[in-house]
Amino acid sequence: MTQDEQKRAVAQAALQYVPVGEIIGIGTGSTANFFIDELARIKHRIEGAVASSEVTANRLKQHGIEVLDLNSVSEIPVYIDGADEITRNMHMIKGGGGALTREKIVAAVAQKFICIADRSKLVGVLGKFPLPVEVIPMARSYVAREITLLGGQPAWRQGVTTDNGNIILDVHNLNIMNPVELETTLNQITGVVTNGLFARRGANVLLMGTDQGVETITL
Ligand code: 5RP
Description:
Elements: H1 3-14, E1 23-26, H2 30-39, E2 48-51, H3 54-62, E3 76-81, E4 85-86, E5 92-93, H4 100-109, E6 110-118, E7 131-135, H5 140-149, E8 153-156, E9 167-172, H6 179-187, E10 192-195, E11 197-198, E12 205-210, E13 213-218
Parallel strand pairs: 1-2, 1-3, 3-6, 6-12
Antiparallel strand pairs: 4-5, 5-11, 7-9, 7-10, 8-9, 12-13
């Protein structure tokens, strides 16, 4: 299967996790887009969705799926999203699409995180994919210096402004042996909004596309 065929297959498989009559959280990216297109076929079964980005909200609306403000929702049974890297421990790097902060917020509210990903995303150790960090614009240089002291090489994602009006630093050359600790350390740098490590709140289920079909991985 091609990468896109794997993405479509995991998007279809994720439909079984969509609870009837409930609100679901939806991520951002090409795999999430495949999922939104699949969800449109059963949209009458859900009450609505909370989106992790403006792009996702627009795609949901185009399909006639109601988009709800997170502040008007107290429970999200399931959040479905892709990842840039994921380990068998269910720790992830996310934010390749720049939506990491809203993704992390919706995932925090959700009871269950279903990660949908093609086989290329499964890794032994996180860090080959540059780790995105969302930063308040005036803190960009300071945060970059602090990250350098931690051993990373930050690169400003030029021309990108997040949905929250911030900038992204992509941190190269990290070999992340302790993702929970690094997630916490980076978030303590003043000016960091959040970083793309999803380790403190990882995925509960990974639906992974392979040449043989969809493999389901849980802890
Ligand atoms: C966006 C994300 C995406 O989930 C991640 O970049 C994976 O994207 P894709 O499904 O296009 O490979 O975190 O901020």
